[in-house]
Amino acid sequence: LTPLHPAAPPGLGMEVMAPATISALNGTSVKLSCTFNSCYKVENKQFSLNWTYQECSNCSEELFLQFRMKIMNKQLDRFGNRVEFTGNPAKYDVSFTLKNVQLEDEGIYNCYVLNPPDRHRGYASISLKVLTEEPPKHDSTVAVIVGASVGGFLAVVILVLMVVKCVRRKKQQRLNTDDQKTEEEGKTDGEGNPDEGTK
Fold it and tell me: Using an 8 Å Cβ cutoff, are 34 and 17 in contact?
């Protein structure tokens, strides 16, 4: 049995790349980046791009951004005028920026690219997670201060322990060399630093 859709020869099919997951803070702007590889130069007359949105993996896709000769925003009520195309198809970049991210913007964003004479349409999807500012700012500040204080205190303790260890080790070595000298010379230097080179 022959497959209905023959696979593209390795290295010849179009490859579309996008991060699997992007997190954005509620109220900020986020760039949903999508780039592609193609063996052919992008010709605006033939090149086509679709960005679609899905609330969940089984939900239907809604088209909100399209490139046919030029960029066209499909004004979904969901996004209003918060979608801005920030890519450059000539440089194989079809990214867009979503401004003033809302909690309900969470979902799956699909990027479809076709660049004839490539016969295969490339595709990538991004899962957008929207974060709210939690915990409240003063709590996190306290946590940072406590964390820094504890961290700083531990660093000092460790440093002191290292210094003590080094000093002890040096004393021990000095004692050992003194003992060896005493044994070798049969007498003890009263004071002064024993010179290891001379007897």
Answer: yes
Q: Which CATH number fits domain 16-131: 2.60.40.10, 1.10.443.10, 3.40.1160.10, 2.60.40.1220?
A: 2.60.40.10
Which among 99, 62, 61 is positioned nearest to 81, based on CA atoms?
Answer: 99
- Between strands 15-17 and 35-37, the pairing is antiparallel
List alpha helices for 40-136, DSSP H: none
* Full pLDDT tens readout for the chain, 199 residues: 443 333 444 445 689 999 999 999 999 999 999 999 998 999 989 999 999 999 999 999 999 999 988 878 776 788 988 999 999 999 999 999 999 999 999 999 999 999 999 888 999 999 999 999 754 555 556 556 656 666 666 666 556 666 565 666 566 666 666 666 555 555 555 555 555 555 5
pTM over 0.85? The answer is no
